[in-house]
Amino acid sequence: MTLLRAALTALVLAGSLAAQQPYPQEPKPKPPMPVAPKPAAPKPATPAKPKLPESDPRNVPDPRDVADPRNTSDPRGTPQDPYAQLEGEELYDSLYAAGEDGRLAQVLKEDGWNILGYIDSHCEGWLALLESGADTTPEGKAKLAEMQAKGLKLAALADKALGDTRFTNYVTNFYSWDADQRKTFREGQDLYRKGAQMFAEAKTPQEAQYAMTSLQQSLERSRPLSDTWGQSMALSLMGRVQNANGMVDVAAGTMAQARELGREIRDLSSVWDALAVQYEIAVARRQYPAARTALQEQYLITVDLKDEQAGMMITQQLVDLDKVAGPH
């Protein structure tokens, strides 16, 4: 390998470390506020009419001084959009309450990589109500049914709009669990949190391996439940630990599963991390087409998110990769 090629390979590997970082969560830029129009120049005052003596026969009301009945608001004027100032969950809730299904589906499509938490909140909220005994009162049962119906409808609208997701399967499975399965789900959540904490506190890749037991146990609980999000999160974190410890082949397989499951429900964190690790492994193996594919998929995610800064970062990595790999 020439010195130049070695230097360029090092540059790409350095870029791959940036790709491994969690998807940037910078605040979204706010649209510029419209500039208030300058006040119009004051019109010159109309000179007062001369006051005539009361005895003057001309001192009677002018029949022409009648307000023009046409000077009313034009019903053809452009109506104000009641949702123009809303965004995120506030917008989704308002459109759902108003029965604006078409527009809600369009908004869910535009925000596809950001709606998982919102849809899942109607599952978690439902479960929390059930655990609090809401099913023992008529009011509680009505609330449970309402939340369940909303969660199912949101999932169906998102699937239809996005075309390649399985939110409906995820939500339907969640609502179908019996008491034992709900207990298993909570155990899986606790185990994942424990593993994630151990991973975050690890100071070396070797220490991070201590998280694997909890993460594996969490995965074993989420799989029989068809808990897609639970599986994608556990697999993604396991793949990062495996890759950091040189278990490249195992990590590649783990991340392939995380990416596939994560895409079903638009799990941004898991999919992004999986692609980052797949890119790094491909570069290390000089499998440049696979590395390019991973970067291109990340770039398409930034386009969906309308994140120009992240898109520029990925574009630069593609340029650096082509310098090493040559034309494709």
Description:
The chain is an all-alpha fold and 328 residues long. The protein has a domain at 87-176. The chain contains 14 helices and no strands. α3 (101-110) crosses α5, α10 (228-244) packs antiparallel against α11 (248-264) and α13 (288-305) packs antiparallel against α14 (308-325).
Q: What does this entry show, briefly?
A:
With 328 residues, the protein is mainly α.
Which helices and strands appear, and what pairs or packs with what?
Elements (H helix, E strand, L loop, with lengths): L2 H17 L68 H10 L3 H10 L5 H16 L6 H25 L4 H10 L2 H23 L3 H4 L3 H11 L5 H17 L3 H17 L3 H17 L3 H18 L2 H18 L3
Mean pLDDT: 85
Computed over alpha carbons, the radius of gyration is 30 Å
Order of helices and strands: HHHHHHHHHHHHHH
Rough shape? flat
- How many angstroms separate the termini? 20 Å
Helical coverage, percent range: 55-70%
**Structural class determined from secondary elements:** mainly alpha
How many helices? The count is 14
Low-confidence stretches at least 5 residues in length (pLDDT < 50)? 1-20, 26-38
Number of strands: 0
Sheet with most strands: none
Strand content: under 5%
Considering the chains and any ligands shown, give keywords for the structure.
328 residues; mainly alpha; 14 helices; 65% helix; flat
